[in-house]
Amino acid sequence: MAPRVTVPKERTPINYNSREVINAKTYLEQHKIPEIIQQLTTMLFYIQPENPKKFLIDKLIHIKEKKLDAYTYFTEENLKALFKIFDVTEKGYISTKQYLCAMNDIGVKNINETPEGSQFNAISCDVFVKEGIAGLNQKFSSSS
């Protein structure tokens, strides 16, 4: 007896202009789902918790209980931890390039490209946290 061969069904191409797709896109934008996913994924990448599923569940429960906005996913504590990852030599500052990379990674759109210390290529943790919080506040207040 010959082996049974299953022929895959042909997929219908996605019509990106269909009402369903537009409704889905609108829903995602209204609820800031892409930003939430980006923030949580970035936190996982930088913090690397031992149990990522528990970390995500705990983070979402915390956000729900405190009724926090999306930008508060990255707390001051999280930003300080992120800074330490970039400050591998523990000098107490990071380069402007590292700062710009980190701001981009956490989703800040209008990055202050010349924060205090940039003239010396030395961004302190305090400046990093201040700029991170300001950038995230601006991002999420302007996309409401």
UniProtKB/TrEMBL annotation:
Q: Name one GO molecular function term.
A: calcium ion binding
Query: Pfam families recorded for this chain?
Result: EF_EFCAB10_C
- InterPro entries per the record? DD_EFCAB10, EF-hand-dom_pair, EF_EFCAB10_C, EF_hand_dom, EFC10
User: What is the name attached to this protein's record?
Assistant: EF-hand domain-containing protein
Q: Source species, please?
A: Anaeromyces robustus
| PROSITE patterns attached to this UniProt entry | EF_HAND_2
Question: Taking every annotated instance into account, which residue ranges of this chain make up the domain EF-hand?
Answer: 74-109
Q: What is the lineage of its organism?
A: Eukaryota, Fungi, Fungi incertae sedis, Chytridiomycota, Chytridiomycota incertae sedis
